[in-house]
Each structure stands twice: as C-alpha cells, then as structure tokens.
Amino acid sequence: MSGVPESFWTGVPIGRDVTRIVSDVNGLAAFVKPAGVLSHPNQSSDQPKALVDARYTLDGEFYEWRDAAGAVRRLWLLNRLDSATSGVMLVAASEELAKEIRAQFKRKQVRKVYHALVFGAPAKSVEVWRDLLAVEKKGGQIRTAAHAGHMPSESRMSVVRVGRKQPKLTLIRLEPQTGRSHQLRVQCAKRHLPIVGDQTYGDFTRNRAFAKQAETKRLFLHSLETSFAYAWHGKEFDFAAKAPLPAEFEAWL
Q: What pLDDT sits at residue 140?
C-alpha cells in the first residue's frame, strides 16, 4: 500500500488517550502510548486498554477491524513497550512495509532515545553502560537479571537535569545500542539508580513514599524519540518521531 490517505488514519480506532504524531506517504506512522496502555491486547477483554481498540492477531502481529463501509482494515505493530512505559509506538499500514521496518530493527539501524527519572544521581554526566544480562521467560512473564548472563547489552547514558527537590531525582537520557527485554530498567537498577515507579527492579520503599507524595504509581520511563532511514520501492526515506515528555516528569525537577 502506498499513498495511504489521511482517511485511513482517522479511521483507526485508537485507544484511550493515544495520539498519532506523524505518518508518511508509504503508510508508516508513530503513535504516542500513555503509561498504562497495552501495546496490544493479550485477550479480547484487553482491547479497550490497548493501543488500538480492535482484535489483535499475535502470529501476524497486526490489528484488524472493519471501517464504516464494512471493509476489513489492518494495522501492523512494529515495536512494543511495557504497559507501564509511555512513548513512541510504530505501526505500518501494510504487511510489506512492516517486514521492511522490522528488518531495520533487526539490523540495529533504528535509533531510539528514552528519558528516565531515577532516584539519586549518576557519578558521571556521560557513561556507556555495558553488561551481560540474563533474560528468562516463565509463565508469560519476562524477568531480566544483571548477573550470570550471557547477552551483551549496551546503553549510552547522559544526564539531562538534576532535580532540586526532595527526594533527589535525576532526569537521564538513555540510548540503547541493544534491545534486551527490560534492559534499561535493569541497567539503571544495577548502578543504584532505580527508575522511579519501577515495581519489578526498583526501590520499593522509595517507590511507596514517592507514590504517596506524588499521587501517582506510574513508571517514569518514556520512549522519547525514534528515527531511521529506510528504502522503499527504490527510494530513500527518513522517518523520525518524537513524543513530548509527560508533564509529570518535569514536575519533579
């Protein structure tokens, strides 16, 4: 599908508080997923809580619905974020395009930037974090550990701003060079910089105190930017999407 019309995008039954930030002529688009929204439903009852309020096929990795005229429409999911993480989600309006962009991810040609609010402050303003992580999948859940692993994992960390309030918090920029499950959350925790609100790898005592003070339990991890170049039907295209940092991050700096 090329020359995807605006009417296609306005007809997508996007989830609650989900917004489209950019789309191109080939049918590639980026949505902003709020914290608490699923990348895709795991069962039909999850549909209202997902990025798109429609049936999802796990094998094909696409959403499917009928438009106002009764025609079947599909939208292919290109990346995933944990439900607790907010930010950029990529989708494609055709299977052919979806395969090409997924290949970009596999070739590590996609640049991703995250922002995280962490307890404490890094010793250095810029660091490259390298770890060997262990990823285990059990009962539909993923757990990652920073010890006894064999998966090389690398991220570039830089300090954006150190907060002046209590508790002491720092906004950091994270650019993962590898894409391990829960990589950023585990790498932060290993360096005694747990991400605020991380219920799996974080500091539970500080999380409880902060949640009471801030009146929110969200995970303060946000997929800020995604960008890459891709070839399509003999032409080169650049694609970039940026999801504004949620206001609750700024409120604690």
A: 66
CA distances from 61 to 40, 73, 76, 100 (A): 9, 14, 6, 14
pLDDT of residue 54: 96
Domain membership of residue 152 (yes or no) is yes
Residues 123 and 14: their CA atoms lie apart, in Å, by 42
Question: 71 and 65 in contact (C-beta within 8 Å)?
Answer: no
**How many domains is the chain built from?**
2
End-to-end CA distance of the chain: 45
Which one of 17, 82, 198, 238 is the catalytic residue? 82
Residue 217 belongs to some domain of the structure: yes
Distance CA 222, CA 160 (A): 14
Tokens of 162: 């150190």
pLDDT of residue 137: 78
Bond before 5 cis per omega within 30 degrees: no
Q: With a cut of 70, which residues of the chain have pLDDT below it?
A: 1-2, 139-140
Is 122 found in the same domain as 90? no
67 is catalytic: no
* Residue 18 counted as domain residue: yes
118 and 210, same domain (yes or no): yes
**Residue 51: φ, ψ to 5°:** -55, -45
Is residue 90 domain-shared with residue 160, that is, in the same domain? no
Name residue 43's amino acid: Q
Domain limit, last residue, from 82, 107, 132: 107
Q: Which domain holds residue 47?
A: 6-107
d(CA 45, CA 43): 6
Q: CA-CA distance, 74 to 65, in Å (whole number)?
A: 7
